[in-house]
Design goal:
about 70% helix; homotetramer; about 0% strand; about 200 residues; elongated; DNA-binding
Chain lengths: ~200, ~200, ~200, ~200
Amino acid sequence: MGIGTKHLSKKSREQQIVIAADTVLQQVGVNNFTIDQVVETLDIAKGTVYKYYKSKDELLSMVSIKALRLLLDYFKLTVNGKEGGAESIKAMLMSCYQYAQSYPEYFELIVYMERPEFHSQMDAYASISAEITDFVKTHISKEQQLGTINKELKPLTVTYVLWGSCMGMMNFIESKRNFIKNVDDIDQRELIATYAGLLASGMEA
Amino acid sequence: MGIGTKHLSKKSREQQIVIAADTVLQQVGVNNFTIDQVVETLDIAKGTVYKYYKSKDELLSMVSIKALRLLLDYFKLTVNGKEGGAESIKAMLMSCYQYAQSYPEYFELIVYMERPEFHSQMDAYASISAEITDFVKTHISKEQQLGTINKELKPLTVTYVLWGSCMGMMNFIESKRNFIKNVDDIDQRELIATYAGLLASGMEA
Amino acid sequence: MGIGTKHLSKKSREQQIVIAADTVLQQVGVNNFTIDQVVETLDIAKGTVYKYYKSKDELLSMVSIKALRLLLDYFKLTVNGKEGGAESIKAMLMSCYQYAQSYPEYFELIVYMERPEFHSQMDAYASISAEITDFVKTHISKEQQLGTINKELKPLTVTYVLWGSCMGMMNFIESKRNFIKNVDDIDQRELIATYAGLLASGMEA
Amino acid sequence: MGIGTKHLSKKSREQQIVIAADTVLQQVGVNNFTIDQVVETLDIAKGTVYKYYKSKDELLSMVSIKALRLLLDYFKLTVNGKEGGAESIKAMLMSCYQYAQSYPEYFELIVYMERPEFHSQMDAYASISAEITDFVKTHISKEQQLGTINKELKPLTVTYVLWGSCMGMMNFIESKRNFIKNVDDIDQRELIATYAGLLASGMEA
DNA sequence: TATGAATGAGTGTTCATTCAT
DNA sequence: AATGAATGAACACTCATTCAT
């Protein structure tokens, strides 16, 4: 038993567990993530984890908040202070690619959280997810008012389109590493750039 | 042991097993699919299945061939005899949505087969997968020659963009059934139509 | 579920499992040993066994520690307080025979543990194994200093010779029970005595 | 189905199967040997193998005849035309080591055949085994008459001692590759030479 | 609040042997 | 004599979750 780790404040304990879960995630990925590893990392009892988080998935959803927050930062950095227009849409999609490359485990986690089989409520995840949605939606609205994006498009709809298709593209790139041999003819970056370009130009006013 | 099912011809048995696997798939989905269920469905010995298919995943890959072939049919039906242009691209994407709605378990299976973790060769899957890729690629080339699609786009690249992003959109729609409550504000059909429209118009010459 | 067996202390449980494994071993032998039998014997959950021992082989290695420790005791009893010389070497080899007769399952287990296919670390086994090696080596050195054993022989080398050849002899005796019918012409005891005598006299100073 | 392989004479078929079994053995070793592989190698039906050999082990015992015959050749080559005496005993043991190094799969097979668990009769194996026994026994008798080997030793007993202990030594060398780290301090050849030397000198008149 | 031992259903895979044709 | 499809028992190992202390 670790020294000095007993009886932390509720909040400290929560954070401690999430940080440990994050550590484990980075080491083994979502698909090999186990509560046992978290417990071993912290040297606390398994029951303690379940005191704070109802299930493994709820704990993972807490980690995914960090992941999504980081992604939101990527989006903000991409959009702020830059010229807007459809070009900014393309830039956001590219930054999503960059994110997936830099934090593959986080990306994998997000994919995991987005799976239909995910029955639980996962309010926390939903909340930050909504924040991202809002950010993108707002950005689109703004651009529409500036006249750079087609005003007939519903911002929320477009946001979902961007999110869904982008996740799919990232996933495709990952999986094709093993499957299609001649995928190398096409540079990953070129692929994602083409994707982003098509979507962006399709949105132009 | 069922009567009259012994000593089928090799081909019959192969088909029988794949059909049973398909049946099981429709009932429980990929993620709960087990060889035991297939065996129980047919009332044959487990070893028999492994005589014909080396592993669970190889068997699933045989089922996925049916799934992909069906999807290819959807694409062909959509494209043939219709006016072409970017409009035909949109139609293909919409037909993909239709497919995912009609055969959710098949769609789920395809997603499963596309996972990076899928190490095995799965030649059969790769083959039909390539067939679909070819079909789409050829269609795009044709349209480019007709002047309806931007000639600067590489057909293969675009094909991958369509496939990856489309899979992502289907996935998104599926997952949002459980997650975001207010996704209902947006009609699924509207969402996919917007996605397809954006991409298609982005590809116009 | 057995009553009163829940929540033993960690050490108790460990011992309990090893004892049960030992029991199973005595009943069916190494080659038919299964975790399921251990679990059934104790009426505990399978997972419990795997909480304490990473694998079937690790559990077996714990049992083999008992087996080897017992063998070491045989050696010690044989050597201590007796006249030394090459005669003591012969006595050790004979005691090894006695051991194999008295604990055939243990002997079989040791053979199992010595197999090249045994990849895992099995530190525990290696440790007690080394202890035996040391004991014999030390005994040989001592006798060499007393001038009863040929000083040109390397103690460690001789130890390995004794171990390897002795294991072979035990094995031979076991196997010939089934194979060569007329082995009975030769008394087992005579056989092992001859073996031990030859080796011992070969080692004399 | 291979062409021209149907309806061979009984003897030809028997030989053909044993040769195929030998081939498989060399490729995968006893522990991974399966009837399926033999059948695949020959492209004949499984049932055919069982027509000629009652069990997998009986087939293996036929292969082991080749293995033992080869070993007997090694012994004969070692003994014939050389100076005799205890020295020839040492030479035989060394040639056994050489054999195990040159034909590890054969050696492994012999070990397999010698296991106590081997219930079947395996007459064929017993027969060639007896031939080797006889050869060694005769050699020992001869040397005893020449006065180089202690006449009080029973030739058959000594033969068994040589066989059993030698098998054990070979086995030991194999297994220690993985287990005892410092076994490298001792050269394999030195180990076996020491063993052979001890036994041989113990037998001297 | 924290513990942590215990649970136990779940599953993919192997292969020697049989027997109806 | 040859076939070869079918058998089916066997087994190691996982891990999210619970609950008595």
